[in-house]
């Protein structure tokens, strides 16, 4: 495996973060600031660097390398595989009547089954129902194929996200990359580092990802009560106080970020489904807990491997980035310290992370986690 990384900010020229070597038909991941990716020349510009590459674009809430976290740049990670084949398929949720489940089903059905080892998914993140998308992908999956990835971001603006394959990025796009090869190895782990606090409440009314009532009371009113003065900073403040959800449908509790609120309807819009009858509790964290969680995720992913990783794909949540603030690089430093300097770090801050629970097979939508996928061939 040969890897080249480059970065640019605004109108600056591309800066090589690694040695400039010639790559043959590389997979080229182009992750970064949404405004920069909306340039009408971005595809041609990147293609001029790798004329025979396969280009996957995605907007982020910050692109990640081993050196920096930056939300005002674009990072390119170009990978030439020596013994691995990859196939890239796309779907657009706008063309499937906003049916996220059907989109997930159809996306995974496009892949030839024989030899498929792993699928990395980069999804639009502004209006997709990530829970339904993952359910659809699980419905089409076979032989416990590992699926990880994330929802694109747009810093903390939540205006729109863009993604694309071999064209300028656009809204609604979902890209899946399937990896094939006998020597290909992928391992993963996720961890959050958030702590529940306060009383548990029962979800008495919800619809998909919209929360109406807790304990038969308006959910937004209760949430504001617990936030106190910080409720004036909603919806941004909600990223710092997500919900821990215990559902009868899942063995493990999961975290849901509040993306927006509807004052008129007194509701909260979450990043994924929140089933009626589930129990919810507020969560909080600090810098040390987040950094420790990233270290733990890296160690778990490393323990599951037979060979040393060559590439680490990191997807972390925008809410974690807001908590870390000026110390945002610390959770990346923890990962690098575990996987080693010889492992290339590529990743982004997202609006939702896609991975199974640790020790399980079916992928899920997560919030407020660090998801790490380690790859080698």
From TrEMBL:
Signal peptide range: none
Keywords assigned by UniProt, alphabetized: Kinase, Transferase
TM region(s), chain numbering: none
GO molecular-function terms, A-Z: kinase activity
Record-linked InterPro entries: FIST_C (IPR019494), FIST_domain_N (IPR013702)
Stretches assigned to the FIST C-domain domain: 219-357
Pfam family, one: FIST
Protein name (database record): Histidine kinase
Organism the protein comes from: Hyunsoonleella pacifica
